[in-house]
Design brief:
The structure holds two protein chains of two kinds. Chain A has 13 helices and two strands. The longest helix of chain A is centred in the N-terminal third of the chain and has 53 residues. Chain A is globular, with a radius of gyration of 27 Å. Chain B folds into two domains: 194 residues, D-Maltodextrin-Binding Protein, domain 2, CATH 3.40.190.10; 198 residues, Periplasmic binding protein-like II (D-Maltodextrin-Binding Protein, domain 2), CATH 3.40.190.10. In chain B, a hairpin with a 2-residue loop joins strand 7 and strand 8. Chain B is globular, with a radius of gyration of 23 Å. At the A-B interface, helix 1, strand 1, strand 2 and helix 11 of A face strand 1, helix 1, helix 3, helix 4 and helix 16 of B. Strand 2 of chain A pairs antiparallel with strand 1 of chain B, so a sheet runs across the interface. Chain B: This is Sugar ABC transporter substrate-binding protein.
Chain lengths: 310, 435
């Protein structure tokens, strides 16, 4: 009789010890994640709630008035033609940027994945704009793109009369997109390069023995295997494209007309130029919903086109 | 619409941990600065400015230090915070949004009605009038009017800088063109003459002709220096009617358009040219820019040319206001009275033509501006401030600025239909003016 008791006691002690150890582990775990959670609450969650709250008010900082306005700001959004123009400008910018950036990044990655002399130099060359200050990069481009700037000077030497890139409605958006593509294409290129280098050589070898050509191997083996990276790059580029601000502020100031007044720039004008923080907050909520919806759609549809999730 | 007072607490609580805090809620009632009471501890005052010129900041600081020495019970220190001009008003309103208003701030004339009418500033009139030796009656009514409302004065217009024409005499002479100073003397200094000189000089030098400084096809209000010669204005005096389609404005804008795209007298959009770096024959800018001149080329400064309606002097003003939101508006107003008293206004006159009649003499201004001759100062500054109009201003100026800029962009091409574009401008701004 005593034996089971004798064995039960240490077991209970072990369990108790294990229980307290587990609690301690939990506490340590919570302590570990606490800075991250507190940071996310303070700098993400609370501002999100605050912006939603502000969006229900008419808030003029100059007059120092903060008046509950219900859904007035949202009603105004529905009937604001300037907001519609701005959404259209954002759409054009995002589509242009994603298509150009992702395809150019993939092309560069494929080219620089060859075992040829000088590829490291080219990789560095294409990646270097990523680490340059965004504003400095954009200011340099603003000089190059002005009417009597470097690009038109170069075109003139070829006998071509270049347009006034940033002042012409037909070319201003294109110029802003190209400046942004050159700035960030290196980052996407590196992501694609890493993905390309993880494609097993033996699968390609087997396909080559089976008689598959280079294009067939790329389409049927490489593309499916790097599809998770294409998903990642697409999400990052689309979300990034909706946040573009400095390039617009430096290059075009939203013009000519309002052809490059993208959503974030429009939001900035409402808040910081027109002192209409309530309406600007409502636009922020709209921007948040758009980014969230795009990310969810891409995430939900990934199974149809992503071959394998990492 | 419910004025939100109880809810403010929650909003402020939420905002306390966000980047944009909300610490003050209330209505736009206007307050009057009173006699400063000695605080428990001397306070610190901050004034935001848009100059980063070390000499100017040092002068402000010496005036402020003398005030601190005189009033040790009231003030411990006064600091001047420089914000770049391009982002000045935006940065200022962002500070207000964050509940972090400076005690005093420079305010640009275009935004004067918005600040004056909003209730953001306190009425400093009684404090200035009551200050010992202030000589309030010496202040020019024409300078004060933009900053007044209902008998109150909501900022002191410390700078009244006339627009003038700077000319590069070397370039004009090389092109064999008549000297603008001679044309002024012969009473033939008109915009037509300036346009001919600019076009001919630009062709000869391969550089630019006449640059309206800081316009850059964005800051269209700077064109008012030209269109005032036609008697044109962007909106009616009461700010309710668009006047871009009035014949004077159509004529003036057609002149600007043709001078740019037909004669090449003005640089086209997207071309940068700095007169002070020798890139252009002439520039219209404020006299305070004279400090950028050096000996690298021969130059002169003459009054603005006459348009079909004669010569109209234009000034750019800047005011100093005291924020109601700040902690010590009474002390700040008292400091403003010190900062702008006759003695200190004479010091400030070195860079900022004061609104004081007694100081607007070529002798006083000449003592502080060794670069300019007494004749130049008399013609451009002293006479330039008389009967001058200020650049366009409106209570909804920021919205109007953007709306007009958007529509005017179509004007800046060779084949633009000026009348139609100006009609579009009115269509765009009518709702804002009617608001």
């Amino acid at each position: 009789m005593s034996t089971p008791l004798a064995t039960a006691e240490p077991r209970q002690r072990t369990l108790r010890r294990r229980g307290s150890a587990t609690r301690r582990d939990h506490l340590v775990g919570y302590a570990m994640i606490a800075p991250q959670v507190l940071g996310a609450v303070a700098f993400v969650l609370v501002p999100l709630i605050a912006v939603a709250w502000y969006s229900l008010h008419e808030w003029n900082v100059l007059a120092n008035t903060f008046v509950f306005a219900g859904a007035d700001n949202y009603d105004r959004m529905l009937s604001d033609p300037a907001l519609r123009d701005s959404l259209m400008a954002s759409l054009v910018f995002s589509i242009g940027l994603v298509v150009l950036n992702v395809s150019l990044a993939l092309l560069l990655a494929v080219l620089l994945n060859q075992k040829l002399p000088g590829t490291t130099t080219f990789r560095t060359f294409f990646f270097s704009p990523v680490v340059v200050s965004l504003v400095a990069w954009t200011i340099v481009w603003s000089f190059l793109l002005q009417d009597d700037g470097g690009i038109n000077g170069f075109l003139a030497s070829l006998g071509v009369e270049g347009p006034n890139w940033l002042r012409n409605e037909g070319t201003a958006m294109l110029a802003v997109i190209v400046v942004q593509v050159f700035k960030n294409v290196g980052l996407n290129m590196i992501l694609f390069l890493a993905a390309l280098q993880s494609v097993p050589e033996e699968i390609q070898e087997a396909a080559r023995i089976d008689g598959a050509g280079a294009w067939r191997r790329f389409r049927s083996i490489v593309l499916p295997l790097i599809s998770p990276t294409i998903l990642l790059v697409s999400i990052l580029t689309i979300v990034g494209s909706l946040e573009v601000f400095a390039q617009i502020a430096v290059l075009t100031g939203g013009g000519p007309g309002n052809s490059t007044t993208v959503l974030v720039y429009f939001l900035y004008q409402q808040a910081f130029r027109f002192n209409d923080f309530g309406y600007a907050s409502a636009i922020s909520v709209l921007l948040f919903v758009i980014v969230l919806a795009l990310t969810l759609i891409q995430w939900q549809t990934r199974k149809r086109w992503v071959f394998d999730e990492v | 619409m419910i004025p939100l007072t109880r809810r403010c607490g929650l909003a402020a609580g939420l905002a306390a941990v966000t980047a944009v805090g909300l610490t003050a809620c209330g209505s736009g009632d206007q307050e009057v600065a009173g006699e400063p009471e000695a605080p428990a501890e001397p306070v610190s005052l901050t004034m935001t400015v848009w100059t980063a010129d070390e000499g100017q900041l040092a002068m402000f600081q010496s005036i402020a230090d003398a005030y601190v020495a005189e009033n040790p019970d009231l003030v411990a220190e006064v600091s001047f915070e420089a914000i770049p001009f391009e982002d000045y008003t935006t940065s200022l309103t962002t500070r207000l949004a964050g509940g972090n208003a400076p005690d005093l701030a420079w305010i640009l004339e275009s935004y004067a009605p918005e600040f004056v009418q909003s209730g953001a500033l306190v009425d400093v009139g009684p404090t200035l009038q009551a200050a010992d030796g202030y000589d309030y009656d010496d202040l020019l009514d024409s300078s004060l009017s933009l900053w007044q409302q209902d008998d109150g004065l909501f900022a002191y217009p410390f700078s009244n800088s006339p627009f003038a024409m700077f000319v590069n005499t070397d370039q004009i002479e090389a092109a064999g063109q008549p000297s603008p100073a001679d044309l002024v003397a012969a009473d033939e200094w008109t915009y037509e003459a300036a346009r001919e000189i600019a076009a001919a000089t630009a062709e000869e030098s391969g550089k630019q002709g006449l640059v309206v400084r800081d316009f850059e096809y964005q800051v269209w209000e700077n064109l008012s220096t030209i269109w005032e010669g036609w008697g044109a204005a962007p909106w009616s005096e009461d700010g309710t009617q668009c006047t871009f389609t009035d014949p004077e404005m159509v004529e003036a804008m057609t002149w600007i358009h043709d001078a740019t795209f037909v004669d090449g007298a003005l640089p086209g959009p997207g071309t940068t040219a700095d007169f002070f770096a020798g890139d252009a024959a002439m520039t219209i800018t404020q006299i305070s820019r004279a400090s950028s001149l050096d000996e690298s080329f021969g130059w002169d400064v003459v009054p603005l040319p006459a348009g079909p309606e004669g010569r109209q002097n234009v000034i750019g003003q800047a005011g100093i206001g005291v924020f109601a939101q700040a902690e010590n508006p009474d002390v700040a107003a008292d400091f403003l009275a010190w900062f702008t008293n006759p003695e200190n206004a004479e010091q400030l006159a070195a860079n900022f033509p004061p609104p004081r009649e007694s100081l607007l003499t070529s002798e006083v201004l000449g003592a502080a501006n060794p670069l300019l001759s007494e004749e130049q100062l008399q013609a451009v500054v002293v006479e330039g401030i008389q009967d001058a109009v200020t650049k366009p201003a409106h209570p909804s100026f920021a919205r109007l600025q953007e709306a007009v800029r958007i529509e005017l962009d179509s004007l800046w091409s060779a084949d633009a239909d000026v009348e139609q574009v100006l009609g579009d401008v009115c269509t765009a701004i009518d709702p804002v003016l009617a608001d």
